[in-house]
Structure prediction request, 298 residues.
Amino acid sequence: MHLKKWTSFLILMCSLALLNTAEASNRSPELKNQAFQHLADEASIPFELVQLAKQHEHAEGIPRNYNRAAELYCEAAGLGYDEAQYALGWMYANGRGVPRNDSIAAQLFGMAAEQGHAHAGKMMRYLDDSLESALPECMQSVAENDLMDFVDKPYFDLVVELAPRYDLDPALVMAIITVESAFNVQAVSHKNAQGLMQLIPETAERFQVKNTFDAEENIKGGMAYLRWLLAFFKGDVTLAVAAYNAGEGAVERHQGVPPYTETKNYVKKIQAQYAKSTHPYQPDIVHRHAVIALSEYE
Prediction:
């Protein structure tokens, strides 16, 4: 079973177990039935996790337990649920049950705001936007598990060595190499994208790659571009990956994943390899409203 499906399956089982404990016993039979109906739909799993977290945080029918609330919020936040990202950001901003950490709070509020969470956007005004982004450890564990999927693949050691220099999760880089070139260092696409991370000549020049068919040079260039995209899209992996395929200009114009069949399929392939929807980013790499060259994809 693929890791993403396996993770969702485990979360489903854990949620069902939680709903059978004393926490769930405080709910009316009607609410229990509603909860199980939600759990039948995988997309509702983050919702159920947040409801349980709120019970712990606010002592709704059970003793207050900030630690457990943070764990549940973090689990749902890692699945890309904006309400969980906001709630966990609030806990870090106020030191509620977790050590106060404005960098983590800013990152979480930023991720929620990018998805349209109104309150998260307001909270961003009270935090220093120059703070270096950070994620809580609980949201980094998925990336560590993803990395094990690639341990036997070519260039794994090289990617693991280089990724920290660019503050990148090596699992995301490996996922992109898998989809882009299937580890063929001599790969060339119909658009003249070249090498392991399929750099077009303009991108190679932009990031000072002289030989796109040299594995290390190509990976460094691809990592530099990926780091830039993550900064531009504030850690949103889906948008950064879509831009890696179609160009940041196309993503900006369409205000999301462009409606190109190739790009939509590309994003799905990366998501099948890499489960996380967010990634730490360096805000000083790029200004969000910088003028960019529009993609020539269309």
DSSP finds 16 helices and no strands in the chain. Residues 215-232 form the longest helix (18 residues).
